[in-house]
Specification:
The structure holds two protein chains of two kinds. Chain A is about 25% helix and about 30% strand. By secondary structure, chain A is α+β, with helices and mostly antiparallel strands. Chain A has one domain. A five-stranded antiparallel β-sheet of chain A has the order 3-2-1-4-5, with helices on one face. In chain A, a hairpin with a 2-residue loop joins strand 4 (about 60-75) and strand 5. Chain A is globular. Chain A starts with a strand and ends in a 17-residue tail after the last helix. Chain B folds into four domains: about 5-110, Alpha-Beta Complex (Sulfite Reductase Hemoprotein, domain 2), CATH 3.90.480.20; about 125-290, Sulfite Reductase Hemoprotein, domain 1; about 305-400, Sulfite Reductase Hemoprotein, domain 2; about 415-550, Sulfite Reductase Hemoprotein, domain 1, CATH 3.30.413. In chain B, the strands form four sheets. In chain B, strands 16, 17, 18, 19, 20 and 21 form a six-stranded mixed β-sheet that branches. In chain B, strands 1-2-5-4-13 form a five-stranded antiparallel β-sheet. The longest helix of chain B is centred in the first third of the chain and has 22 residues, at about 5-25. Chain B is built from 18 helices and 21 strands. Chain B is globular. In chain B, a hairpin with a 5-residue loop joins strand 11 (about 325-330) and strand 12 (about 335-340). In chain B, helix 10 (about 305-315) packs across helix 11 (about 315-325). By secondary structure, chain B is an alpha+beta fold. The chains are: A alpha+beta, B alpha+beta. The interface of A and B includes residues 12, 59, 80, 91 and 92 of A.
Chain lengths: ~110, ~550
């Protein structure tokens, strides 16, 4: 299963996803799931998770980074669990809030 | 209502300053998340799915227009333009930034508000009857006693590290609007044979994964002994309460495992042993607190309200609002006006900043500036002249706050669920929205009559599903949202826990199930019989048969 690293940004709690080129010493936290680095095997998943944990531990950039399962769908990259789907896009009862609202967010 | 004295002000201001420094240290990396988490929780700041969440205490659900305007301002300035009123009579912001939270707390402190004791294993914000000081037949305004408990319990050193959180609810009326029997301690004001006021003391109620209706451990406690007796209960709990297992740490489990009789004996023993160390409640101090809750300057009004009555005759919408949202007031010519936060197809308990401002204005115009929050996630203007009801109603219509459904099926309690909450297993709000859409027709709602549906998105039961006439619990079944349905619960003076109907349902099925339960009730009820009465008469089987097609 493909995986990405998800976390909450420390300063404002916003959900972020890790992007890091293979072999890089540190990653960058992205606001949009489609900008995340997708690990296609376990070794790569452990590599990006380690970068995420280091970001939380050493630089206090985020809280509680962990791996989530994702899949490519016709509408783009999507978490497979609905909990993470809601996390990645926003409350299903307020389409005007969260990442799903895009730049038009309230 | 209560006004802060210099000590209250200093305490809250000091806390803001302290938390500001703690946040600075966290942002600078001087504190780890593990070190910081308990500090932020002590200031009501949680981390949820999408962002932080700040829970603001509204002591015993009472606030004034100035405070409501501040809540609106914070929603606009620091959050996303709305707030969520909870079953604990509090307000939650769903999108505050950590770096701005000290500023939010400073704003709150300006209007004598804070987020202290809205989290953690301490005595939480005390809850009460939203009709306090306005209800007919009330023995005393319970908020006097809530405030006394608040002052006693605020940062109480002995009770700041309890085995688990601790919730106290107080009512001064016989009809229980505060769900006191499902609190760690429930207090109901009573009179003894000689007419003295005191409390029935109920201990060990609670919901969550192990629900219990509380047990009465003292039928009548003279009110001057309230604090010493509460202290005795807390001491016994602090000693006996389990700390090995979070799920068995609430006092309900202590009372259950110890036995109510033995627990009562231990409390009485502790109480007797206090002697001179017992906290005292001198009459002078009670009187001082009571003065804050003296009734506003009610006018002498005639009983009749001709303008209101004429409007009701000509406007069915207004008439329905009066029928369902207006309750009798203890003073002739006045009424209690409920503001429903349950419009069709919207999240229960949410209010926009504009709506909060509108409520503040209407409170100033018609209710001496006073507002209440209910545990059913609605608002109340407690003291409205009957003749002003039409103008108030027009103001509520303009603000989108005129849903006329208090106590009806669409007046649903729902926790935030998986749309926001990190603990949830399933969504609650969309189920509530779809039920209100299915039952949007007013005639049908009125035909059904009193009906309480309560929805929780996980076993922690913030949505009170155990005590719903119909209770719905969201669970995760192999990665899918799934819903258990139970019926027969009640949260009032006849408190009861519902019983699970049978196997659970998908999100798509659950609204149909509610409809089948309601239809069964409508077919089987006798003249004037409420849902809960019918259920108690005919039992669960007829409902089960209808829902599952077999006995």
């Amino acid at each position: 299963m493909d995986q990405v690293v998800i976390a909450n940004r420390l300063s404002d709690g916003v959900v972020v996803f890790l992007a890091a080129a293979p072999g890089s010493a540190r990653g960058e936290w992205m606001l949009r799931l489609e900008d995340a680095s997708v690990a296609r095997d376990d070794a790569r998943a452990q590599e990006i998770l380690a970068l995420g944990l280091a970001s939380a531990r050493d630089r206090n950039e985020v809280i509680d980074p962990y791996l989530i399962d994702v899949e490519q769908t016709p509408s783009g990259l999507r978490p497979t669990r609905y909990r993470e789907l809601i996390r990645a896009f926003g409350p299903t009862v307020r389409q005007d809030l969260g990442k799903q609202a895009g730049s038009g967010e309230v | 209502m209560y006004q802060y004295d210099e000590f209250d002000h200093a305490l809250v201001q000091d806390r803001v300053t302290q938390f500001r420094r703690q946040v600075e240290r966290r942002l600078a990396g001087e504190l780890t998340e593990d070190q910081f988490r308990p500090l932020r929780l002590m200031n009501g700041l949680y981390l949820q799915l999408h962002a932080y969440m700040l829970r603001v205490a509204i002591p015993y659900g009472t606030l004034d227009s100035r405070q409501m305007r501040k809540l609106a301002y914070i929603a606009r300035r620091y959050d996303k333009g709305y707030g969520h009123f909870t079953t604990r009579q509090n307000l939650q912001y769903n999108w505050p930034k950590l770096e701005e939270t000290p500023d939010i707390l400073a704003e709150l402190a300006e209007v004598e508000m804070h987020a202290i004791q809205t989290s953690g294993n301490c005595i939480r914000n005390v809850t009460s009857d939203q009709y306090a000081g306005a209800a007919e037949g009330e023995i005393e305004d319970p908020r006097i006693w809530c405030e006394i408990i608040r002052q006693w319990s605020t940062l109480h050193p002995e009770f700041s590290f309890l085995p688990r959180k601790f919730k106290i609810a107080v009512t001064g009326s016989e009809h229980d609007r505060a769900a006191v029997k499902v609190h760690d301690i429930g207090l109901i004001m009573r009179r003894d044979g000689s007419g003295q006021a005191g409390f029935e003391v109920i201990v060990g109620g609670g919901l969550g994964r192990t629900p219990f209706i509380g047990k009465t451990i003292r039928g009548f406690l003279p009110k001057e002994h309230l604090l010493s007796y509460l202290e005795a209960i807390l001491r016994v709990y602090n000693q006996l309460g389990r700390r090995d297992n979070k799920f068995k740490a609430r006092i309900k489990v202590t009372v259950h495992e110890t036995g109510a009789e033995e627990f009562t004996r231990l409390v009485d023993e502790e109480w007797a042993a206090m002697g001179d160390t017992a906290p005292k409640l001198p009459k002078q101090e009670v009187d001082r607190i009571a003065r804050y809750f003296e009734p506003p300057a009610f006018r002498a009004l005639p009983k009749a309200a001709p303008a209101s009555e004429a409007r009701a005759k000509s406007d069915p919408g207004f008439a329905a609002w009066v029928r369902h949202n207006v309750s009798p007031h203890k003073i002739s010519g006045y009424a209690i006006a409920n503001i429903s936060l349950k419009p069709v197809g919207k999240p229960p308990g949410d209010a926009t900043a504009e709506q909060m401002d509108a409520v503040a204005d209407l409170a100033d115009g018609f209710s001496f500036g006073e507002i209440r929050v209910t545990h059913a996630q609605n608002l109340v203007l407690p003291h409205v002249e009957r003749e002003s009801l039409p103008v108030l109603y027009d103001g509520l219509v303009a603000a989108g706050l005129a849903a006329s459904n208090i106590g009806l099926l669409s007046d649903i309690i729902a926790c935030p669920g998986l749309d926001y909450c990190a603990l949830a297993n399933a969504r609650s709000i969309p189920i509530a929205e779809r039920i209100t859409e299915r039952f949007a027709d007013r005639d049908r709602l009125e035909l059904i009559g009193e009906m309480q549906i309560k929805i929780s998105g996980c076993i922690n039961a913030c949505g009170h599903h155990h005590v719903g006439h119909i209770g719905i619990l969201g669970v995760d079944r192999k990665g899918e949202e799934h819903y258990q349905v139970q019926i027969g619960g009640s949260a009032t003076e006849d408190a009861a826990l519902g019983r699970i109907l049978g196997r659970g349902f998908s999100a798509d099925e659950v609204v149909d199930v509610v409809e089948k339960i309601v239809d069964t009730y409508l077919e089987r009820r006798t003249q004037g019989e409420s849902f809960i009465e019918t259920y108690r008469r005919i039992g669960q089987d007829p409902f089960k048969e209808r829902v599952y097609g077999t006995a």
